[in-house]
Amino acid sequence: MLDTLAKIRVLLEPPMTPWGISAKREFEAATRELEALVASWDGEGEPPAAMVAWAWSFLASWPVHSEPVASS
Fold this sequence. Notes:
Low-confidence stretches: none
Mean pLDDT: 76
Number of strands: 0
Strand content: under 5%
Number of helices: 3
C-alpha cells in the first residue's frame, strides 16, 4: 500500500488553480496520515480501528466532485 501511495504522489500533476493547490495540499496531508497508519499495522488480520476510523472520516469529508465550474 505504501508503494501505491508513493506512485500516486508522483503521478499527480502540478495544480494550476487555487482550488487545485488547496486540494493537493489536503491530499498530501491525508496521504502522510494514512502512510503512518499503514506503517504501524503489521498487515495481519483486520486493520486497526484507528485506520478504519481515519478512512471513514476521510471519505466523508473529501470533495469527490471535480473542480467547481464558475457560473456565467
